[in-house]
Amino acid sequence: MVGWWVPIDNENTIGFHVELIDHEKKIFQPPDAPVIRDYETKQREPDDWEAQVSQRPITRHALENLATSDRGVVLFRRRLSEAIDAMERGEDPPGIARTPQDQVVVIPSGNEVVGPS
Questions:
Q1: pTM of the complete model
Q2: How far apart are CA 67 and CA 73, in angstroms?
Q3: 3-state secondary structure of 38
């Protein structure tokens, strides 16, 4: 499966998926199928959906209780904030290569990754 999500506005996204489905196996429920998991099950065994909707349409970071395992989230937010600050100063955010000699990684055909020379 290949999937990606595209923002529509501040509170909504749309998902696109390309999937290979074996019709002899029942993997996915049709949209009009009855809900399999009742409320109590969702509370005792939450999955991705419960994690997503429990954050509200716009997450309030002040209500989070980040742990050491959330270090990647903190680092990502810091990098994003630094990139926004750079753009406000009129600079390029990290990762922008305006000239070929500034490119760090060249990916030719054949699934090879060639580092800087």
A1: 0.50
A2: 10
A3: coil
Q: How many residues does the chain have?
A: 117
Structure-block tokens of residue 67 = 């742990």
CB atoms within 10 A of CB 39: 8
CA–CA separation, 29 vs 52, rounded Å?
A: 19
Tell me the pLDDT tens digit for each residue of 16-55. Answer: 988 777 767 666 656 666 667 888 888 888 888 787 777 7
Residue with the two structure tokens 């959906």: 49
Under 8 Å CB-to-CB from 114, ≥6 apart: which residues? 105, 106, 107, 108
Domain spans in the chain, listed from the N-terminal domain onward: 2-93
Asked whether 114 and 108 are in contact (CB, 8 A), the reply is yes
